[in-house]
Amino acid sequence: MPSYQDVTREIGDQWVAALKRTEDALASVAQGVRDRVDLPQIPVPDRLSRLNDALSDRVPLPSELVKANFELTERLLAAQRDLTLRLLGASEEAAETPAPKPAAKKAASAK
């Protein structure tokens, strides 16, 4: 019988492969649309064009935003994994350690 990790890895591999196939199909469709359709040139007002030129050096590219956010997500997931594993380790150690016996009750004091 395969282990949980083996099953999870296999499902993950299938999921990633499906995502790659979808990515390839979408890229192909996008390329086909770009090759077949002439997008109209929309006139840009001069003020908007100047604003775009002024901000273009200060605003990150969409690809930079995606990379930065995925890197942050990976770091956060790694930190959460490490914390969870440490807590599981501590709870396993606590479960293996015998609990201290409760202190004997003191005899009721005489009235």
UniProtKB/TrEMBL annotation:
Superkingdom of the source species: Bacteria
Region Disordered, annotated ranges: 91-111
Protein name as it appears in the record: Poly(3-hydroxyalkanoate) polymerase subunit PhaE
Source organism of this protein record: Nocardioides vastitatis
Species lineage: Bacteria, Bacillati, Actinomycetota, Actinomycetes, Propionibacteriales
